[in-house]
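Late entry, FE3-S4 cluster complex.
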Amino acid sequence: MKQKFYIETYGCQMNVYDSELVATLLNKSGYEKTDNMSEADAIFLNTCAIREKAEDTVHNRLDNFQYLKKQKPDMLIGLLGCMAQHLKDDLFEQKPFVDIILGPDSYRKLPEIIRNRRQLEDHVVDTTLSRYEVYEDLFPVRASGVNAWISISRGCDKFCTFCIVPFTRGRERSRSLQSIVTEARKAVAEGYPEITLLGQNVNSYRTETGDFSELLEAVAAVPGLERIRYTSPHPQDVDDRLLQVMGEHANICKHIHLPLQAGADRILKRMNRTYTRSHFLHLVERIRQILPECSLSTDIIVGFPGETEKEFLETLEVVSEVGFDSAFMFKYSMRPGTKAAEYSDQVDEAVKQERLERLIRLQKTMSLERIRRHIGTRQKVLVEKESKKSDRQWAGRTDGNTWVVWDKTTETPRQIVTLEITDAKGITLFGKRID
Ligand code: SAH
Ligand code: SF4
Ligand code: F3S
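Prediction complete; structure with ligand written out below:
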């Protein structure tokens, strides 16, 4: 009987993609995936280290696995991804029942490690980071759905002072344009109407055959590809050429995720974000000149070391001024090993919490105001899944990435339909089918 593996994924889309890579590698070596962990011979956790909370979740999960392992001592437990990279040997000390620890550049070794592990009776750690590994030749077996994630680069060289990613993912490297286009074609052949190009700094993509704008153009020309998204760009690398290419191709979605992080120049500088508040605001203006319909989302951190009340208010000001359609908002979380962890002026937890709540309150009103502009318009929406509230309704996203809910008619998932938008609540639009 085939050996079975189970894999659970935390963190960003890059990890979702990587779990698909791992599944592909294991499938090729004769292992079969299962969604039922009690029948698995090997259990993997693909982990995230971005905030302390992400790590806590994995620690709790591991404690559950320890219990499972007591009942089934032969079962292998493997920790993959960013936390594996970050904590390495410390993890073995804390959790001796973990058998395998592999960082994000070591997945090719997994099948061999599992084979040998059965003879070895010892732990295996491999967290070597590579300057070259992009898993170029591996085309992942995808989970079903409407969107195919395609990793175009790995690693990050930006070293924002709060961020663990440059340490867990290593140096930035881009995959060849040709292999990305081939993967996009495959996704279309498998029936995916949408792809999302992924990279920690997706728009700093560069190879001898082209930069990010050229890659987008090449991907936009893939026949049958209806929607192209990308995430996350760094504001520093958004230029006019990129905006023009977005404008020239109907299948490139008019949505940009533009992480602000903070609104005060002193904090931005301490974060090493390389732009000022006024650069950021100019960029937003430029986006709206070239792509008037483009929606914007962002990431914001409150309570970065040394952030004063006045500086926090500057963040609120930028948030009001820009009017993001949506935002991911976080309390600063200290990450050992990063520069900001050494700053002595850490902000009190209660202050961070209070700032986060004020920011969320403001963004809620901004989001609603922004999405209300669609009421009365017609929007193309990709049918994605059943609405959480009712099995008689669908949920799908507009080109600008806003969720819409509507009563089912004859449509099916992966189809693009035209809806008239009739209402907006919270961050969700409501509509009715008109085509
Ligand atoms: N590469 C992407 C972001 C990856 S992490 C980019 O540069 O946009 C996603 C988000 O997590 C970041 O944008 C940031 O807002 C948040 N984040 C990263 N490190 C954090 C930390 N130490 N504490 C709180 N939030 C953090
Ligand atoms: Fe982290 Fe900054 Fe790199 Fe994004 S750009 S992954 S926030 S270091
Ligand atoms: Fe987390 Fe690693 Fe992604 S730290 S956010 S899984 S790159």
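The first strand starts at residue 4 and ends at 9. Will revisit in the morning.
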